Amino acid sequence: MSTSLPSASAGDREHRVQVDLDGDGAMAALATVVDDWGGQWEREGTSARLVLPIRSGLRVGLMAGRVWTEPSDEGVEIVLREEKRDDRVQWPAVICLALGLAGGLVTIVAPMFPVLVPLIPVALILAFASWLLIVTQLKNSGVEELFEQLVLVSQVEPLE
Questions:
Q1: Cα angle at 66 between 63 and 70, to 5 degrees?
Q2: What is the structure's pLDDT at 9?
Q3: Which residues partner with 81 through β-bridges?
């Protein structure tokens, strides 16, 4: 089985990936992946509309679009055109990082201001704790990651 990595054109937010399946098999595999991601899927003839939860660093949101297949030399090419994307910043995480930044600044500035020296241990704990809390929660899940999972699913032979 041969597959190609996902590609996207910048202007119209159209994403493409080639899989070694027929059209119905590709749409079925995509439906499985969308369901696994907690997205919504509605088939409309040879195309489908979908809504996906997306995460990108400190932003979370939803992406809605239309997906269809086009024949290619090695199977089909799945095309997803983003119609709407709504991202929002997770402000609690930003505030937590700001507190960590304040702790980091105190550790840097404290040697110049002896009054702040007793705060260095607390500032270090604040800086490291906030950084680790946020870094462990950072994830990316967008169209590219969806297509990467789709390629993996398309390569798996079905059990008989």
A1: 135
A2: 43
A3: 14, 66
Q: 55 with 140: CB under 8 angstroms?
A: yes
Residue 19 has pLDDT above 90, yes or no: no
Helices (H), the chain: 23-36, 91-109, 120-135, 143-155
Q: Taking a C-beta distance cutoff of 8 angstroms, is the pair 98, 91 a contact?
A: no
Tokens 């870094």, located at residue:
135
Q: What global pTM score does this model have?
A: 0.69
Q: What percent of the chain lies above the pLDDT cut of 90?
A: 37
The answer, yes or no, to whether residue 2 has pLDDT greater than 70, is no
Measure the CA–CA gap between 113 and 152, rounded to whole angstroms.
56
Cα(10)–Cα(128) distance, integer angstroms: 37
Tokens of residue 103, six digits: 């702790």
Rounded Cα distance, 52 and 147, in Å: 12
Banded pLDDT at 116 (limits 50, 70, 90): very high
- What are the CA-CA distances from residue 31 to residues 82, 113, 145 (Å)? 17, 60, 15
Q: ∠ CA 146-4-153 to the nearest 5 degrees?
A: 45
Q: In the prediction, which pLDDT does 73 show? A: 82
Beta-carbon-side half-sphere exposure of residue 29 (alpha carbons within 13 Å): 28
